[in-house]
Design brief:
about 1200 residues, 2 strands, 46 helices, extended
Amino acid sequence: PLELASAVGAMSDPAPERQELAPSGEVAVIEPTTEAPKKARGKPKDPNAPPKPKNAFQRVTGEARAKIKQERPELAVDLKGMAMALKEVWEAFPQEEKDKMTAEYEKEMEVWRPKWAAYKETPGYKEFFELKQDWVDGRTKKKLIKKYAKEAPKRPRSAYMIYAGEIRERVAAEVAKAGGGMGDIGKKIAEEWAALSEAKKAEYALQSSRMKEVFDVEFSKYRLTEKYKEFMDEKAKLESRQQQKKLIRTKLSDAPKKPPSAFALYRSEVMPSITAETKGLSTGELAKKVSVMWAGVPEEKRQPYQKWADEAKAIYDKRMLEFRRNKMYATYLKERTKVKLRENKLLNLRDAPKKPKSVFALYAETHKSEVQPGKGAGRGSSALKDKFAQAAQEEKEALEARSKELKSKYYEEVKSFKESDRYKTYEKTEKAVKRELEAAAVKLMTIKFLNAAPTQPPKSPFAVFVHEKRKATGAPEGGKKSKVAKQEEVLGFTKEWERLDKPSKAAYESTYRDRLTEWEGKVKTFMAQDIWKEYLAEAKEFKVPVKNLLAQKAKALKQLSGGAGMPSRPEAMPTRPPDAYKVFCGERGGEVNGDSERLLKMWEDMSVEAKAKYFTEAGKLLDSYEKDMAEFKKTDDGRNYFKEVGRTLRLRKIKNAKKAYLKDMPKAPPSALKVFMSKAVAELRKARPDLKGFEAKKQAEERWKAMDADERQALEDDARARLLEYQEKLGEFKRTPEFTKFTRARLVSTPPPKPSGMPVKPLNAFRAYCKEMKGLGRSKEELLKDFNELPEEDLATRKRKAKELEDDYLREVADFRKTAEWKAYKKQQFLHQKRANITLAKSKYCTGAPKKPPPAYQLFSSEKRGEIMKSHPDLKGAPATKTAEIWKGMSPEEKGPWLEKEKLGREEYLKAKEAYESTDEYKSYMKVVSRYDRRPKAKAAPKGKGRGRGAKVKPALKPPPEPEGMPQPPPASPVALFMRENKGKGYNLKSGNEAWVQLGAEGQKQYVDQLRELQSEYQVKFKEFQKSPEGKKHLRLKSAFEKRSKEQRARDKFLGGESAPKEPKRPQGAYFLFVGDRRESVAKELGSSKMGDVAKKLTELWGGLTPEDKQVYEDRAASLKQQYDKEMEEFRSSDGYKQFSRAVQAIKKKPKAKAKAAPKPSGRGGGAGRGRGRGAGRGAPAAASDSDSDAMGSDSSSSSSGDEDSD
């Protein structure tokens, strides 16, 4: 943490010595060593690299430097003076010689460049590059430290540096006179310091220690400032970026390079000629010119470049797959995750509470000055441990009490910190980093291991049929097809599959089973190989779930239908241990050769005392099993397994409830078509026994189409009468207790889980005794008798202990009910109970509620169905499409009768609804609903007294009006478009959806296509509107309105309620207090109440007051201001204001720029580059800014509106 301050001190303290505490407590100075090897300073240099030729300036100044040092020795320590002297030498050098040297330099560079290019491919260069990059990273870090060091307290100088500062000027003059350099100055100072007396050194050491004490106080304050926190955040982010880049350089150095695209190949080909033709253009202008040329290249000329790019991409993909199989890539993923997790901890857990010191640490803190520092026996921590072992018991108890108090405070701070936004951000980021690692690990292990697994066979007999059909047609395996083409192909295969007879389908079923069995055998063999073991080991190392290759989807589907038993047990699930009898059988079974009858006889003849051994062992096994099961339930497998168990049990419960309570439920009658079809098929099969089922069904359908309308109407009337009778019986049945019981069983859902921090109720005295006696095989009655016969003292002790546990539990419950976790749990409980009881009440009391009448189109459709079927016998089923076409083509006068029927039906429905709402059933239902209605009753607004007094109602914000030329968006979906165009048919939501479904795919397609065209047209118009002045102004006003609305909602939410904190009114100043006292008298004196006249007179009077008279008002104003500041501080420290302030900051906070695919920008510099630059041209908003405000955050904060109000 002192790194920042160390940097400040390093600006004037290049070589401070170390200081330690001597046994006497004085500061002992450790002399700086001169024998240690010097660390290389400055930018690293590569000794193995081919030497780069020197240019003309370097040659001339290199020869002149030594000569200048001899002639003018004072310039040896004056860098600026030396630079000016070299500049004069260069300017005086003949130009002909300069040109000659430059020509020689160019020739030497032509020889050097190939050598340098070859050297860059060697391992030596990579090692040097890492060394150089580490130096660059360190320099960047130093710049960051230097940036923030300006406001940090300066680190105190050491005793040596204080002394060096005093004599530096004198020593520098002496060294310069003797012709020495800057290094000689340091040597001279070190020699004089070594010759200094110990007493004099102690004086400087004391001066340094006093400066250190002041620095410690200042730096502890600085650590609490926002600047220090900003510095630590920036430092953590910088280190993370540098480490991630280093991982890419070191771990991914052997990865194949990404191949060039077709455009990149074209650019590399034409760039030399463009550069030669257009000299002086910038890089951006050249790139723009090449882009324009590429856009004008014909498609046939682009093909060669695209072909080369595709070939290079295929080679790259293959090499990348091979590289990812390398262990180095897995190491890179793990190391990158560690770096990101470390950055997350440094950013978000820096303010986390520090763990308190232990008892020994507290003792060592007090007594460390009493022992000799150092390591080994009799020194440092070893001596402190010996001293602590001999310490008095009273002192240890006092330290234990203090440690316990610190721990309690620490746990409270941790609990509070975990509720903060910073900790939630930490958890969210940690989950995201781990998910990223898991996704990458799954891809990696799929490449390395799972791609070698046996190919999964077809998933059904139909899939086998499709595979053979495709093979017979000669279609290539894995050929690319569009989604629509695949759907059409599968639809055709489905029709062929339906026409197959049973023997053919049975053959495909047999083939499917054989392939499945063969595949399962191959999978088991694969899972027995070493590659599967390696996969399991790596999955465990990466902490990712293992893929279950033998998962059966059919079982899951069967379970969903409620027809299967419990889900299969996971392999890691603990097995329930044997009971006492099974333990006995395992031990004594060998004596009777496993004869079960003799074992049972031996068990029954055994005494209770002899059985106690087996009961005790079984109890221990059961305790161990319960612990293992509790741990298993916390794992992913455990949670998923018990989730499936719960779902299966719910399905089983509903199935059993149907069998138990719905036995007398009336069955829905068949439709007219179904009655006719069953009767006609039976007659046809009786007349012609050789007729197949689908043939008989087809002939029956033809009879139905050719049936007379009157005969069909008679069948439909009978079906309608049966349906009405069924509905009446169903309504009566739903009022019975059996249906209520079924509804309760079906609707009762799982209550919300209890919070993890909720106290657990302790066992009473008897239950605790039963737990102790667990495993002895005694019944509850026997244990109760034994418990009551316990000695009175033992019984009283047990009851007293149980009472203490219960009292502690009640206190913990009282504390827990004050937490937000309890409130959230009670809210979930309330909502759960509300949903269950209201749904149950609706099914119980609302069975007689009137149904909404059908709309006009539905009345027309049901009435005209027979006529339409008769006039169009080729229609199959309900002629919805034809009915819709006829209704759409009708005039309003023709639709009049059905619209009138709809109106009459609506009126009858409203009357029936009004009558139903007066019944006892509806009142009972509303009682249940009102029981859960927590909405507060409306209160009368307080009346104001006089003008401008009373409750002020802030008018609602109005959104900016839409400009006249603003395009309107199309409907949100094809269904909405269909409803809009058929608005005159009187559709409601339900009937409109039914009509939409009846249109079928062909009827719906026209609305889908029409909506797509409308959306495209709207997007074009809206983009044009955005570019117009009216559009820009409207969007700007809309954004400001939304921001103000959010702030107003936040204010109403957190500061608008009756229980919300009230902002104190800003007090008046001295002048306005004077005005308030004198306004009435001045108005009477002037005989006028005009504001201007009174204000002018008051200003004159105020200016004529003596300082003593003004001081009275200023004292009053200061007192009021002090009271206001106190009240304002209380107001700003309230929870409501803090929540409001956070909400306003979140609203005003600028969202981070996200990389997204945008339309191709136009203008200068458009497009996104692939390098380090932002890739945005002039006019595009930058994704990140290098300014201090973007890097360090804004200092602005939300303030109360009361600060702006004044008289």
